[in-house]
Write the structure tokens for this entry.
Amino acid sequence: GQQVMQIPQYQHVQEGEDFTTYCNSSTTLSNIQWYKQRPGGHPVFLIQLVKSGEVKKQKRLTFQFGEAKKNSSLHITATQTTDVGTYFCAQSKTSYDKVIFGPGTSLSVIP
Amino acid sequence: NAGVTQTPKFRVLKTGQSMTLLCAQDMNHEYMYWYRQDPGMGLRLIHYSVGEGTTAKGEVPDGYNVSRLKKQNFLLGLESAAPSQTSVYFCASTTGLAGAWEGTDTQYFGPGTRLTVL
């Protein structure tokens, strides 16, 4: 079945350092969504990528969808303490399919 | 506009007890979902509903039942709670317009219910 992998599982960075998390799928995807969950909170939608090779930016966050539509990355430039949380990718094989969440990458930022 | 709400926020059960978790949304969304979240395992889909009166199984449906009698409400029931069901439960909803374009509906999550089964 469809498998979603995210690496790393945990990342501790000094405030101001960059951070990247990777999401990989065993199958070609229709799209990828990224969510952020603050400690004690609920997942909140960040962005969706649909096109092969697509790159989208939100302030210090850069999201990329692989050319083969099997992987994606989230890069945060100059992390801040407000970036702390777990970042999940969510995948679906087609736009009609259920969304499968990855295990998440937990980011800690040391002030 | 409250979005997605969940009741209760916390609950402690003894093994064998039953309970119902309530999810309500005021966005007129067609689709609703129940997930459980365990450390290191992300969100796993328990059951979902694509409309009033319909339900379907997700990845981990065993030990749970659901009902969608009204469009705005989605109930998750545990008939005989087990310690393995200790988890944080999230409800989510989407518009149900998936398929109209390449993308997938954004999921709007409730605040979660933290359940402990002793």
Notes: The longest strand of chain B covers residues 87-94. Chain B has no helices and eleven strands.
